[in-house]
Amino acid sequence: MRKVLYPGTFDPVTYGHIDLIKRAIELFDSVVVTVAINPGKAPLFTTEERVNMLKESLKDFKNVSVDSFDGLVVEHAKNVGASGILRGLRALSDFEYEFQMALMNRKLANNITTIFLMPDEKFTYLNSSIIRNLASLKSDVSDFVPQVVQQALKKKFK
User: Fold this and answer.
1) What is the pTM of this model?
2) How far apart are CA 66 and CA 27, in angstroms?
3) Which residues are catalytic?
4) In the chain, N or C: fewer CB atoms in 10 Å?
5) CB distance 126 to 16 below 8 Å
């Protein structure tokens, strides 16, 4: 079975993330979407909230599971039996960092391949920081995130 791991902070999940997951489903038998606990970031939502929003947003997707982890991505990929790590590239500015991470992950586990996918053009400008900022200013984010995320953002920014 070909399984890919899609790690991210997903703070919050956007339609851009979901677009990449749809693309990954076409290429792999199984997709594990995992919320990374990154000590270098101060997320708006707790890990549990992000996992729950992902599960709700992806509930109709077959062969997709959601979890979380703390540690090295390649170690988690090994633990879930993934042969690949999925990373999204929206713009050239994403590439340098992702390329460095892919090379380091290859050094740590040369049997796990990093796969880069681009979202649909209509999602290339989307990122979670922009969504959080828009929501904090009471802007409508319904074109960018699922309903469960819209509700969670409204609750956070009441």
Assistant:
1) 0.94
2) 18
3) 17, 41, 90, 128
4) C
5) yes
